[in-house]
Amino acid sequence: FATTPTQGAGALTAYENHGLRILFTFPPPSNPGTTLIVLQAHNLTPQPILNFNFQAAVPKSMELQLDPPSSSTIPSTGSVTQQVNVRNPNKAPLRMKLKIAFSVGGIPVSDMAEVNNFPNLA
Questions:
Q1: CB neighbours of 117 closer than 8 A, spacing ≥ 6?
Q2: Less packed terminus of the chain by CB within 10 Å, N or C?
Q3: Measured between alpha carbons, how far is 71 from 58 in angstroms, rounded to an integer?
Q4: How far apart are CA 88 and CA 98, in angstroms?
């Protein structure tokens, strides 16, 4: 089985606000019909980010599996990773709603975002 050259290539900034940048990268999946996303959450502030919590939702025709983040604390200028698997048997265009919560400098942050500009991974 050959992998499509576009799979495993590219990165997408899914969120950047309140001193947090979330980057999605797309390594080649091990199963056809599945999109593997490695989320990298980067702390752009001089203070640690605490209680980092990432949630996502996809259309009903897809299945989502979120692994826990490598840590719920992101050190100053550091990052954590989290793996996201999306089963997409119909190969529909991928869309995702994000819910992100954390605190920085003692201030709780709760935010939502949508990602509709995924690269073509089919």
A1: 12
A2: N
A3: 24
A4: 18
Residue ranges with strand state E in 6-117: 11-17, 20-25, 34-43, 49-57, 63-66, 79-87, 96-104, 107-115
Contact 56, 97 (CB under 8 A): yes
**Mean pLDDT of the 15-40 span:** 92
Q: Which amino acid is at 1?
A: F
Show the tokens assigned to 38: 């490695």
Record the tokens describing residue 84, joined without a space: 């996201």
What token pair was written down for 14?
Answer: 């899914």
Is the sign of the CA dihedral 66, 56, 80, 34 positive or negative?
positive
- Percent residues over pLDDT 70 in the chain: 91
Residue whose tokens read 């299945």? 63
Q: CB–CB of 26/119 below 8 Å?
A: yes
Please tell me whether residue 35 adopts helix, strand or coil conformation: strand
